[in-house]
Specification:
Number of strands: 0
Largest sheet: none
Helix content: over 70%
Oligomer: single chain
Distance between the termini: 20 Å
């Protein structure tokens, strides 16, 4: 009984932290999936194994894409590794500015990174925009998957 309560509480906490981690630099989908598994391990809910395998695969895929998509965005818009690194560093610094700071930091960091390697301002801005678009797409994928997992967890109790 107490174990079930703990699994449910920590499961829902992990789901929520995973959703927050979908925007912050935390492993959002894996945390949300861990929360779903905790709920599954309780005696109150049992998810179908096919659902769990599908969500595990999607969590893995989205986590990998989270690293690949921003790189694709940088390359697609003519950027360099410096722009990608700048975007990542800007995102981390932007954490101190709240939700908008994260997005602005990712863009400005990418721009500064490109300017530091000698790109002209037009090319640097375009590459920073590509990095920003890649970052936003990755965040969108992670948020959607985390919300889906939260939805399945909530629907299990209805």
């Amino acid at each position: 009984m107490i174990i079930d309560i703990l699994l449910l509480v920590f499961g829902f906490l992990a789901l929520i932290i995973g959703l927050i981690g979908a925007v912050l630099p935390l492993p959002g989908p894996p945390l949300s999936f861990l929360g779903l598994m905790m709920i599954h391990w309780s005696s109150k809910v049992e998810f179908e194994s096919s659902l769990l395998w599908t969500l595990a695969g999607l969590a893995l895929l989205v986590t990998v894409l989270d690293y690949v998509v921003p790189m694709w965005g940088v390359k697609r818009f003519g950027g360099s590794k410096a722009g990608m690194w700048g975007s990542t560093i800007g995102l981390i610094i932007g954490l101190f500015g709240g939700p908008f700071g994260i997005f602005i930091g990712a863009f400005v960091g990418g721009l500064v990174g490109e300017l530091m390697v000698g790109q002209d301002s037009k090319t640097a801005t375009r590459a920073a925009f590509g990095s920003f678009i890649g970052f936003l797409f990755g965040v969108l994928l992670k948020v959607v998957l985390c919300v889906v997992m939260i939805w399945y967890a909530c629907m299990a109790f209805v």
